[in-house]
Amino acid sequence: MKRLVLILMMLAAPVWAVEPDEVLENPALEARARDISQGLRCLVCRNESIDESNAPLARDLRLLVRERLVAGDSNAETVDFIVDRYGEYVLLRPQATGANWLLWGAGPLMLLLALFGATLYLRARSRAPEPQDTALSPEERRRLAEILDE
């Protein structure tokens, strides 16, 4: 039983990235802070939220989120403040607006273009005439025999 508890504690270690001195006394504000920090990317760890990361920058961002919430900002205002400061890259789920539509649509668009190009290539290849096997002329046979004898 002790081993099972130890294994479960090791698996849950990233959840404990928020340190006790960061936790707000107000449970409602803390829940909002955890919700916001789960949607923000750690700029050091890349694909890890600041809620899961142990990096010093992630800690600073978690503290900044809590400061903004204690100051009275809404969730959207807090996220907007951090995005204004660090750029849209800080969002784990980027917004599909403006120039991001190009990024969101580029993958499916490239797939459709590749399928269209493959279709054209295969059609052109199927319409091409079959290569004809022609027999060697007497002169070519003589030359080939000379080459093989050498």
From TrEMBL:
Transmembrane segment boundaries: 101-122
Signal peptide as annotated in the record: 1-17
Keywords from the named record: Cytochrome c-type biogenesis, Heme, Iron, Membrane, Metal-binding, Signal, Transmembrane, Transmembrane helix
InterPro entries, sorted: C-type_cytochrome_biogenesis (IPR051263), CcmH/CycL/Ccl2/NrfF_N (IPR005616), CcmH/CycL/NrfF/Ccl2_sf (IPR038297)
Domain annotation CcmH/CycL/Ccl2/NrfF N-terminal: ranges: 6-148
CDD domains xrefs: CcmH_N
Family to which the UniProt record says this protein belongs: Belongs to the CcmH/CycL/Ccl2/NrfF family.
Described purpose of this protein according to its UniProt entry: Possible subunit of a heme lyase.
Name the record gives this protein: Cytochrome c-type biogenesis protein
